[in-house]
Amino acid sequence: MSGHATREQAHKKRRAEERTADADAAFEDRSPEAQARRRDLPLVRPAGETDWCRTYLPQYFDRRFAPFHGRMARAVGKAGLPTFVAAFRGAGKSALLALARPLRCILRGECPYVLFGSQVQKLAAYNMEFIRVELDRNARIRCDYGAVSTGGPHDAWSVELAEEVPRPGPFVRCRLEAFGIGMSPRGRRFQQWRPWEFVGDDLECAELARNPDREQQLWDWLMDEVVPALEPDRFRFTVLGTMFGPGCMMERAASLARECDEAGAPLARVFRQPAVTDGRSVWPDRFTDAALARVRRMIGLRNWLRNYALVAEDPSRPFQASWLGEYDPSAVDRARLDVVCFLDPAVSRSAQGCPRARRRRGRPRDRPPLRAGRVD
Predict the structure, then answer these.
(1) Which of 90, 209, 344, 368 is 20 to 30 Å from 136 by CA-CA measure?
(2) Rounded mean pLDDT of 289-314?
């Protein structure tokens, strides 16, 4: 990672610490009943209702949640089901699912061992640091969850919770480790536990997505190295991302989600949230319709489709992979099947056209197909 990226990350970490300090006015009501009520709040509530995120992390969540935030939070966390979340740029998926949710799970004693994954280990460790800042510095958390201690280097550290605080889960210690693509987590243990939860964020970039071999390496790493290393049947697997084009990670995840095991259960889940539904912004408190329309004109259709509409196809290409389909010949009356158009896309700059190209056009069923030696 470049020196510029490292300085930028250090700046963001300092800003996170400053925001945490700004929000650290502890609660006035510190009675055990009030503390229990706050700890039991749901992670997310729309329409301005009190929730866990805005109670303990107001510095990150200063706008009302939209209905899709609740659906997005409920989509993850099912045991044994790899879940991929594709949401538009600026939807808050990292703050909600890579910071608030794992932080709350740790404080509730629901997870003993978490792996964070990213393109490189340093970036994964940087993402983990935001959780550590809150555990070390957030007075609201310390008010309701007691003394919390962390220890260890930036890429592998542990949390110890106050044992006297009631919590729904049984774990008072949790281990967090950072991994980059290609690093094997196999054989990892914390006490008697294998990794319980995996959170993947910033796994793809435009450069990686342009290389099919690197995309395959990323997918193989997730399926061949990460998933088998997790606690069997009980693991939670959450990967965040967006669309980077045909063959990207989210496209592969969608294909896996269409497959089922012998009991009929899907092999994966994909949650997809574009920025606009029925022509209107899904989060008007942050993105007005006019602002999104301006962004679309500014960045162009191709970038809009991938970053905000979450469509992998490139509309500038003359041929789209989604046009291809399959059918079962035994289920079709081939006598009624017409070839509407077939074009061999051989290309030639010759004034006479390409002699290898052939075309087939619509025809009556009782006549042979029309053919041409070349296309001019």
Answers:
(1) 90
(2) 91
DSSP character at residue 98: I
What gap in Å lies between CA 92 and CA 63, rounded to an integer? 11
Asked if residue 362 has pLDDT above 50, the reply is no
Alpha helices, DSSP H, located in the chain = 3-22, 32-39, 52-56, 67-75, 93-94, 101-107, 121-137, 139-145, 206-209, 212-220, 227-229, 249-257, 289-299, 301-304
User: Tens digit of pLDDT for each residue in 105-120?
Assistant: 999 999 999 999 999 9
DSSP assignment letter at 368: P
CATH number for the domain whose boundaries are 3-273: 3.40.50
Structure tokens at 183: 């690093």
Closest CA to 361 of 373, 352, 370: 370
Contact 133, 13 (CB under 8 A): yes
Query: Residue 121: CB partners within 8 Å, gap ≥ 6?
Result: 155, 178, 179, 180, 183
Per residue in 230-283, pLDDT (tens digit) is 999 899 999 999 998 888 999 999 999 999 999 999 999 999 999 999 999 999
d(CA 39, CA 34): 9
Domain residue ranges of the chain, discontinuous segments joined by +: 3-273, 326-361
- pTM, two decimal places: 0.79
SS3 content of the chain, % helix, strand, coil (to 5): 40, 15, 45
